[in-house]
Specification:
two-stranded antiparallel sheet, elongated, Alpha-Beta Plaits, 3-methyladenine DNA Glycosylase II, Chain A, domain 3, 12% strand, 8 strands, 3 domains
Length: 268
């Protein structure tokens, strides 16, 4: 009986040894090799998995960077410090800090300035409001509804609702772009933080209609465009837009705008 137990034990041990050897050989032959740089890059990323880089998460971005399918500064949350670390991992001299961006809500139509067509009661979601008659209670169908969809989408607490409109705290914003995706009216965009001149309006209505809807609506009067010495202002769909590549922030458009639709963010 004892001899049988010993024999069985030896058989089990030999079987385990053979299986181990087989698995080891199979791993070497068929195993998927993971780029060590990929693991290092993923470790260097902040791990928020916010999707602001355009990939499913930090792991997917790390894989893309390791394969050369994404730039080392693709993570908007990590910014320059993370990009520089990844550049070292990838054997590059410099990551290229790029321009720091921040979300900006292109609307100044707060409770005092914007007109309303009716009093809305119900779910405050911007999506829900935009599906009600007139595309929402506001007279301007392009204005911020203040329902807070962007607030809920922001993982960093960078957005709040003040006097009926969303406002971004640039110090907290990581430019992940989640609020841009969440806004049903598409009035949030990423702009350079170091640029202080902003168009605080998204209305595409003609002058008379825009003026009735909001006290600070852009009416496409062209005065800002005519005043700009660098052709940095263009008018499209009765709305002023700034080309930040050309803008030198002289402030001429801010002073000339009769509707105060163009602002200096440091003075607003």
């Amino acid at each position: 009986m004892i001899q049988g137990i010993i024999t069985a034990t030896i058989c089990v041990a030999l079987t385990g040894l053979l299986i181990g050897i087989f698995l080891g050989l199979a791993d070497k032959k068929f195993g998927v090799k993971v780029d060590e740089r990929q693991a290092a890059v993923e470790k260097a990323l902040p791990g928020n998995n916010c999707g602001g880089c355009g990939f499913a998460g930090c792991a997917a971005l790390a894989e893309a960077i390791a394969k050369g399918e994404a730039p080392v500064n693709a993570c908007p949350v990590g910014g320059s410090p993370v990009a520089d670390n990844i550049a070292v991992i990838m054997g590059l001299d410099a990551a290229g800090s790029g321009v720091k961006m921040s979300a900006y809500v292109k609307c100044a139509g707060d409770c005092e300035k914007a007109k309303t067509n009716y009093n809305y009661t119900g779910n405050t979601s911007c999506v829900m409001q935009s599906n009600t008659p007139g595309k929402g209670p506001k007279a301007c169908i392009y204005g911020c509804l203040g329902g807070g969809d962007c607030v809920k989408a922001c993982q960093f607490g960078a957005i709040s609702i003040r006097n009926g409109i969303a406002v971004v705290n640039e110090m907290l914003c990581t430019s992940c772009g989640m609020c841009v995706k969440a806004c049903p009216r598409g009035i949030i965009e990423l702009v350079p933080v170091d640029k202080k001149v902003r168009v605080a309006c998204s209305s595409k209505d003609k002058g008379p209609v825009a003026m009735k809807a909001c006290d600070t609506a852009c009416i496409g009067c062209m005065m800002c465009k005519k005043e700009c010495p660098n052709d940095a202002v263009v008018i499209e769909d009765f709305l002023a837009k700034i080309d930040y590549e050309k803008c030198v922030e002289c402030g001429a458009c801010v002073l000339k705008c009769p509707r105060k639709a163009i602002i200096n963010k440091n003075e607003a």
